[in-house]
Amino acid sequence: MSTKVLLIESNSPKLHFIENEFSNFEVYRFACDEQAKIHAFLLRNSVDAIIHFIEPQKSCIAISHLIHNKFPRIAYLQLFHDKDMMLSFKHKSGLNKKLLYGPQKHELIFKNLKKLLWLSKVQKKLYQNEQMAFLLRRWQQMYVSPGVEEFIETANKFISSELNAENVIWFSNEDLEYYGNELWKVHGLTEANDRRSRPGFSKNVFAYKYIQVQEVSKLLKSVVEHSQQNINHCSDCIWFYDKNLETEFVLIPMLNSKRVDGHFLVLNPKNWYHPEDAEIYENFMQSLGHSYVMAEEYSKVRHLSYVDDLTNLYNQRFLPVALDKAIERSDKYTRPFSVLFMDIDHFKKVNDSKGHMVGSKILVELGHIVRQNIRSLDYGFRYGGDEYLVILTDTDPETAKIVAERIRKQVEDSIFEVFDKKIQITLSIGIATYPYHAKTREEVIELADQAMYYGKNKSRNIVFIAS
What we know:
Blueprint: E1 4-9, H1 16-19, E2 26-31, H2 35-44, E3 49-54, H3 58-70, E4 75-81, E5 86-90, E6 97-100, H4 106-142, H5 148-163, E7 167-172, H6 173-178, H7 184-187, H8 191-194, E8 206-207, H9 213-226, E9 238-242, E10 247-256, E11 259-267, H10 275-305, H11 319-333, E12 337-344, H12 347-354, H13 356-372, E13 379-384, E14 387-392, H14 397-413, E15 416-418, E16 421-423, E17 427-434, H15 441-458, E18 463-465
Parallel strand pairs: 1-2, 1-3, 3-4, 17-18
Antiparallel strand pairs: 4-5, 5-6, 7-8, 7-11, 9-10, 10-11, 12-14, 12-17, 13-14, 15-16
Helix pairs in contact: 4-10, 12-13
């Protein structure tokens, strides 16, 4: 690999003879008065050293402060001449020299420069190895749970702590492309948007701190707009700043061998100084890749025990787990969640007149409708027989009623063609919201069930909210 040097030139022609010695390096040149450009360049690019031809002028002093404060780990060499025509080297390693100034000494000057660059590369490698070992030790102390959700939750917390970030959001490759289209399901956008929902959408977006779904969509759109490459196949950390959102971003890939499984989007990290950090975290995520694969395998096995064979919705075994998660999230972020309890009207007549095979096909089709109308952060269940249940995360009773009415209307308007038979059904749906109507997981299910039966006894094909 070539040596990358950032060369900050002064206005003095007396030092230009030294610059000719950099012909074998990959050199990036800036003037002393280009402080903003230098700052932006260093945030995006990794260099082995900064060599600053310095004169006692204000712009040079400002650049020195910038590099010392914002990029303390980059090798920073200052070359300046004093009134006695001496040329001085200053380097944080302690290797400082004063040499006679003049062309006859340029070979000796450049020899010392190369020595300092070599020393800086060694120090950089040692630092990266130390940081990697430190990060892995810290991770091993924090990570104990085997599943994917637990893995991502711990990783978000870990990255937020290490980088002192405002928030950390995990998203999979699929989420980046489709997440914005999920918004219609709660906010009831146009019919055209309804048809853009992706079947089988099961991955989640995980945020370390609570963030509204609309804000996540804005952030992911900003990532796409600012990236100059296909993120889903990019194994490099990416830094950028969005002026409209007034937010600094760092995108860290989750690597498994050469495959990118997803990304951590870090918002406003205070401890992100330089692309050297990118190399450290890229290597760190590569080390975590094996743990992520093991967590995926564990989650797949666990998931199979929680899924209804007929509808591919969750079964009752998973309901206490999901309710505990919903209550914990609601208490933490003071956001309600709602439960929809659904029952097919007169389903026994369908089974008796058309047969159980037809009844089973209708249950499958109803499961598809439920999945189409909930977001990836919600939970859909086949509660038992012809009863279905949905947990709507971060949803108040009024919004839950919008979702419930959409499901009810879609079922009412659907004609199910099963074995050359055309069948129409209707649903009765009850709604209860935590903590508005209930304070425990048992209460919220019971009240949603009671609301459903109240509506069924009243008229059927109705949505009724608990009181």
